[in-house]
Amino acid sequence: MGGASLPTPSTPGYGSYAGRTACDCLVAWLPVYKRLLLAKGLIKSDIDVWQLTGGAPASGGTHTQGGAYDLLYQTSPAHIAVAREMGAGAWGRTVAQNFSKDHQHGVLYGCPHNDPAVYQYTAMRNGFNGLGRATSGRFAGMWGYGHLDEYPKPSAWRTWRQGIAWAEVEIARLTRPAVKAAAAPARKPQPVPAKEADMQFTDKIPGRSENVGQALARALWAYEQIIDGGSIDRRIDSAVAALAELRVAVAKGETEVAQSILDRIEVDLSVKPAPAPQ
Known about the structure:
This protein is α+β, with helices and mostly antiparallel strands. It has helices at about 25-40, 75-85, 120-125, 160-175, 210-230, 230-250, 255-270, and strands at about 15, 20-25, 50, 70, 90-95, 105-110.
């Protein structure tokens, strides 16, 4: 694996990212990956590029033609999951696996520059971690199948271009300003009704010829007549019964009958008009 000459930023199909040679695919993909990590709160400011296109011996030639990257510190399962959703075969590589530093190693799917590393992506889709050579089974003798994959598969298999489109939607969703609830319309102050003045003894009662004081005096006189007349309960019962007759007469419009009933009630209660007090 490896052996080809290394491209430079002036090589057609290549450029640079973070001061390092990178294929055009990585130059387009890495900034969006960074923005999505920022939107998710998984980094504070930037990704930490360790290697892009290069010939580090420990990489086994996988970085020699592009489409592969190594990042320091962005090595958590969450970082790996985002890279996989964006169309990369990604893993956390560790010192325990004989690497000099813990780092994230990734390979873009659909990148035309990553022929030396595409076998690792294929191994990931088959459930392996892209390291070592299988010694048995249907992948016996094939590189990348020496160990089972340590990370969950993505929700969908995307190319790196599809991964960018997916990430842009996620970034928009995560950074959309919160919609504030509409403020309730201000309630119009209601006028306080004017307090009615207390009635005075000299105030005229609407619809009658007497004032308040005269009406009270007549009511008191009527009450005294009832008390003095005795048999209060019987006389009240008779008046109540007459009231029922009065309602029927009024409902039928029988004016003379109604007046007769009123006269009887007045007799029962011994209520006679009291002289208006002067």
